[in-house]
Amino acid sequence: MRACLITLLLASTPWMVSAQSPAAVAPTAASATVLSDRSSTEEVSVRLLSAARSVQPGQTLLLGLEQRIAPHWHTYWRNPGDSGQPTSLQWTLPEGAQASDILWPTPQRFDVGPITNYGYENQTVLLTELKLPASLKPGTTVQLQAEATWLVCRESCIPQQATLALQLPVAAQSTASGDAAVLDAARKALPTAAPMPVQATLQNQDLLIRWPVDGSKTSPPDPDKTLFLPQDWGRIQHAAKPQLSQADGQWQLRMPVGEQPARAGQTMDGLLLIGTQAWSVSAKVDGVAGAATRSPSAGTDTAASGDPALGSAASLSLWAAVGLALVGGLILNLMPCVFPVLAIKALSFLHGDSREHRRQGLAYTAGVLVAFGALVAVLLVLRGAGASVGWGFQFHSPLFVLLLAWLMFVLGLSLAGLVQMGAGLAGIGQGLASRGGLVGSFFTGVLATVVATPCTAPFMGAAMAYALAQPALELLAVFMALGLGLALPYLLLACWPALQRRMPRPGRWMDVLKQALAFPMFGAAIWLVWVLAQQAGPQGVLLALSGMGLIALALWARGISRNAGRGGQWAGGLTALVSVAGALALLPMVAPDAGASPAAAADAAHAGEEPYSPERLAELRAQGKPVFVNLTAAWCITCLVNERVALSTPEVKAAFQTHGITYLKGDWTRQDPRITELLKQHGRSGVPLYLFFPAGSGDEAQVLPQLLTPGIVTSALEGSSS
Fold it and tell me: Helix, strand, or coil here: 27?
């Protein structure tokens, strides 16, 4: 029991470390023993600039962080918009020196589908004013050090960090540096205070920014180039297009309020952009805002519109994400892709003593946690390479699907007793099942993790979306919680003899059950071959079945030659070796089929079903039509179960027809960046995701639970029309 408690404490260690020191995990752009004034990554080159080559005591020194950004990438303003993170500077300064906040230049607005961000591309200089102490002595040297942290994004985002330093001699008189002109130009380009009075008014669910028609001393503003960018996040819906109008001698810019609208009496700070001119605005807010609602264009959803426990991934804390992941991992044990493995392993408790059971439980838990740790490592490598990944990302690879289908086929043969794979219940082999089956238990945990990844349990969606947007240690903490939840039932059974005593007595039923559990494995293999057909077409199916035949031949030859003479053993071993080599030779031939997914094509042919595309969804929403969006994948068992028991029932189909609902189906079997983007907008990292847009273009999407029944779907449809 003590060993089990130690395991639980060790598994929780990353969460505690992460909660205590989140800043310690930020990736660094450069790590050098000697500090420099510059650093570079493939995406961003940074340099610390000073307006003076030498400084004098008491001087106010202008500094700048210059960012040279690779084409098509961007960094972020102080309010990044719908996503992102602003650049920050952490200074280490001489005693008595004081640095100002960053003086932010005018940002650009980036619209990527329904997501809007504010930031910088190509090149920018972020200024800081530094007040040096009057106690500095001429002839000494001042060292200024800045820890710069930024997020650079294209389709994916990469957090980066660099430590930069300047050494400046102290003299009786300051002398300008070669960068003084660059910094002076950057200061002159900063937004200036608006020359006219600007009013901010809350009106129901809108924020109105007003200024006199002739107050700006400019030509009439272009509606497409007139924006208000609030300094604080959540004041407006960033992706919503502002509406410019003129009334009573004033220009009026109307924008829907965001998730954190300003209250009456608060000061609204921001930038008013009119053409190429940027005015700094600080206005006291009057009026009253209604409850903030979010349009589909904003790409967000509320907790009340789906699983109440989920909430928005953006609003989760680390501990909330860890808790949701732990519960989601527990529920994964009940999924059809995991339960057979757990049931097979539980049979081991009918033999042996309690000490051996505890050791097997710890080995199984270690296998689960190591597998999840390896999954995190792969995710970090792919994320660092700029790939967009989510839960179950490996099932986008036809090669992975093929190998897993073969594994399920071999395990089915072993459980059915058709081949002998050793004493380990996971079928790992006699060598791996040595030392009392500990290695077999470890690899059973690895197997449970592998077969769990196509499943998505309730509570997992928000936790996974949160984790995939975090630095490495937070990502590891959430995935370790998910793994611990997956391993917890078996670990408790192993460490709690009272639970073991409630299991039925050993008997012939064990062999029958073990053989019966072979059929879920065969079913999983058949399903995976079907998934492969969606990804690699008929050739993928041919390769999968050919490999299964070769593997079966290898196992048969090895089995019948085991007790033969030397010649028979040599012939059987050679046949097995050649068969396995033949199966491995098929792997390079597996490739995604360039044609359309057969499942998607079949779905499109059904009346009332259309393939999902952002353009089609936007077209239907602009017309005010109700839309139901189903994001699914052939390898997602939860998705397939929901479609069979809920979405394909006559009751739900009749409800779609009665309410005039267009059914859009997004197939994520093969990586589709458009579906990935929609998942991210709603705080999810994987499928399934079910969205219902009621009639009326201004309504937000209702997110349905991840486990559906016909009643849940029809209630959502009927509730919107009542």
Answer: coil
Q: What percent of the chain has pLDDT over 90?
A: 20
pLDDT < 50 positions in the chain: 1-3, 5-33, 289-315, 422-436, 595-607, 722
Q: Which pLDDT score, from 0 to 100, does residue 219 have?
A: 61
Q: Distance between CA atoms of 524 and 529, rounded to whole angstroms?
A: 9
Query: What does the pLDDT read at residue 123?
Result: 94
Looking at residue 455, what is its pLDDT? 58
Cα(168)–Cα(48) distance, rounded to whole angstroms? Answer: 12
Answer yes or no: are the C-beta atoms of 30 and 39 closer than 8 Å. Answer: yes
Q: Give the residue carrying structure tokens 């791996």.
A: 432
pLDDT for residue 430: 34
pLDDT the model gives residue 59: 92
Question: CB burial class (10 A; 0-12, 13-18, 19+) of residue 613?
Answer: middle
Beta bridge partners of 414: none
Angle at the Cα of 468 (from 466 to 474), degrees rounded to 5?
75
Structure tokens that stand for 67 in this block: 């960012």
Superfamily name and number for 598-721: Glutaredoxin (3.40.30.10)
Q: Model-level pTM greater than 0.90? A: no
Distance (Å, whole) CA 611 – CA 596: 11
Task: Specify the pLDDT at position 28.
Answer: 40
Give the right CATH number for 193-293 from 2.60.40, 3.40.50, 2.30.300, 3.30.460: 2.60.40
Give the chain's largest Cα–Cα span.
Answer: 104
Output DSSP code: residue 236.
Answer: B
Q: Would you tell me the crossing angle of helices 434-452 and 398-415 to the nearest 10 degrees?
A: 130
Identical fold, 23-189 and 193-293: yes
First-last CA distance in the chain:
56
Alpha-carbon dihedral 446, 448, 452, 454, rounded to 10 degrees = 70
